[in-house]
Amino acid sequence: MSRLQILHCSIELWGAFFSLVAAILAFLTRRYDRIAAKKLFAVLLVSVFFLTSDAIEWLFRGDSSAFSNMIVRVSHVSSLFFGFIAITVATTYYAYIIKRGSGVEQMLYKLCNYSLATLGILFLIVLVILDSIYYIEKSETLYNITYNIIPDLIGIMSLVNSWIVFFKYYKHLNKLEIIAIVTMSVILLTGLVLQIFNYDFSFDNLSFNLSIFIMFFSYEQQFTMYMVEQEKKYNENRIRLFNSQIKPHFVFNSLSAIRALCRNSPEGVEAINDFSIFLRGSLDLLNNDECISAEKEFKTVSHYMNIITKRFDEGITVKYNLENTDFLLPPFCVQTLCENAVRHGIRKRENRRGVITINSYRKADNNIVEVIDDGVGFDTSHESEDSQTHTGLNNTRQRLELMCSGRLEIESEVGKGTTARIIIPA
């Protein structure tokens, strides 16, 4: 094996390994942008097959045996095929980045590049059928594809399409995206042009290697900035959330209800006990930036709901079906949903009465908590507008995602009630 072959194999196998690791990391960091992560994952996975195929071709190139010729032929066809597929998946990812910034769907751009890739694959199929992939040297060693310029021209044309879209929408992209796209385009174009004039070295694959690195680096940098920003918001929301739990009017109303109860019945003692336990638990959780046990959260909720039911003169009934408490969740998340159920559901009914049901169970690989009320309900198509008003719901959704990879689902029907469902992976 020549030094050139060793160099090619090393570069491309390293690139394939990097792409595989990057694909795993993109999957693990998908909560930043699930759509972008999914499309980038596809690009990186295709890159693994593309670079591995070309590395195998270089590994066996120069050997005149029938087995080596077969391996070279198959691996070269495979690398060309995945090269055309790479155009489609890269186009899909790039079109999404442009749409994310500009809000404009890039259907024409995708159609053009998909068509180019399809033409390339059809061209490849014809060459395979006609057995015109290679010409043979005097040493009876397979050398190279007869029409190598065609794939490179297709690559250049897809790049030109990408530039047209870039120059039209670059003002909608951030600086990091602009730098990454420009750098990738220049590197890819340089590699493709050099490849047309010199087929003794895989300039196009080397440029593809570098471009994949830049693409992933750009994604990871944006993910890092996103996590820093989310951490900042989380810390701010944690303090705001705590303040909302013990805000003066809540304390005043609770103490007023307790004072009235103390005059007329021994229930006042229970109310004082519930309130003191709830307040002490709230203070303990102020500095807690980690998830707590569901059992502890439900205990806090029970004391809170005891105060609420007494405050509203038994107008609110609470039912508990806690089959599963062996998991962790962010503090106050269930309590916040109960507060929303009271304030925005039941208390808006004409008779201001209703039932809140709290369920906790395990389904498949998820821990589920449901807070169900029979209040006024709302149109879920306007949920985003409502959640902007009810900051507790926004806080809960963000904290679930950041602290335990969970999510919050809301189901509601006007006049019938609302179900808020917490889903946490087991």
Relevant terms:
426 residues, alpha+beta, five-stranded mixed beta sheet, two-stranded antiparallel sheet, 9 strands
Show unreliable segments. Answer: 135-143, 385-389
Q: What fraction of residues sit in β-strands?
A: 5-15%
Average pLDDT over all residues: 81
Alpha-carbon distance between the two ends: 51 Å
Structural summary, described in words:
The chain is α+β, with helices and mostly antiparallel strands and 426 residues long. 67% of the residues lie in helices and 12% in strands. The protein has 13 helices and nine strands. The chain has helices spanning 3-28, 34-60, 66-102, 107-129, 149-169, 175-197, 203-245, 248-264, 267-284, 294-311, 333-345, 383-389, 391-404, and strands at 134-136, 142-145, 292-293, 316-322, 328-329, 354-363, 366-373, 407-413, 417-425. The strands form three sheets. Strands 4-6-7-9-8 form a five-stranded mixed β-sheet. The protein has a two-stranded antiparallel ribbon with strand order 1-2. It has a two-stranded antiparallel ribbon with strand order 3-5. The longest helix is centred in the middle third of the chain and has 43 residues, at 203-245. It starts with a helix and ends with a strand. Residues 135-143 and 385-389 have low confidence and may be disordered.
